[in-house]
Amino acid sequence: MNFVIPPSPTVGLFIAGTDARFPVRRVYCVGRNYAAHAREMGFDPDREPPFFFCKPNDNASVIAVAEGEVASIPYPSLTENYHYEAELVVAIGKGGSNIPVADAAQHIYGYATGLDMTRRDLQIKMREQGRPWEIGKAFDFSAPVAPLRRLADGQAITSGAITLEVDGRTRQSSDLTHLIWSVDEVIANLSTLFTLEPGDLIFTGTPEGVGAVVPGQTLTTRITGLAPLTVRII
What we know:
Layout: E1 12-15, E2 18-23, E3 27-31, H1 35-40, E4 51-55, E5 62-64, E6 70-73, E7 82-84, E8 86-92, E9 108-115, E10 118-119, H2 120-128, H3 134-137, E11 143-145, E12 149-150, E13 161-166, E14 169-175, H4 183-193, E15 201-203, E16 211-212, E17 218-223, E18 229-233
Parallel strand pairs: 3-15, 5-11, 6-18
Antiparallel strand pairs: 1-2, 3-4, 7-10, 7-16, 8-9, 8-15, 9-12, 13-14, 13-17, 17-18
């Protein structure tokens, strides 16, 4: 195919145990999927249907971080309240729509530790005005992701600690069992809204303890059984 300008390169996430990369197609995110986080953001955590937003899938927004690497990400423009959100990321390896919950795990390629970085002041301002969240969520360097662990290399992840440290001090600490909607339920629900395809990523939500960071601070996110993710704000 003859393009008038060069197409954007595909983002390739690192995969533990192989030199191959996982090509990113779309990036979906689940909002307020831990009850304690919903409360700290001023919302009722009742188990209503999940809602979703998206991040760009280009290599300006999705940052593939190698194991053991400390990735540098710049403090974004036009914000004075830049927040971290530690999240389990699920990579889709088999597409489908209207996927039953019981079959959802068959569509998972693997899992990774991720960060949903957020310009919280801009997000809240848009929310209060009834406008989309993009300027608060979908900006450059907003989605760092550690190497994937293939589902084929272990069991499905349904539990385990999820933590985030800022300069060595724990700020978020929870367990994946506290997800309001489980990974399988998220996949099933999302597949009623969009046809999922191989290469899709799903950020599954963050626990309580979100907060602001400033240049010079280092964030380390850990999820049991997965490679940790470390980034430094510059």
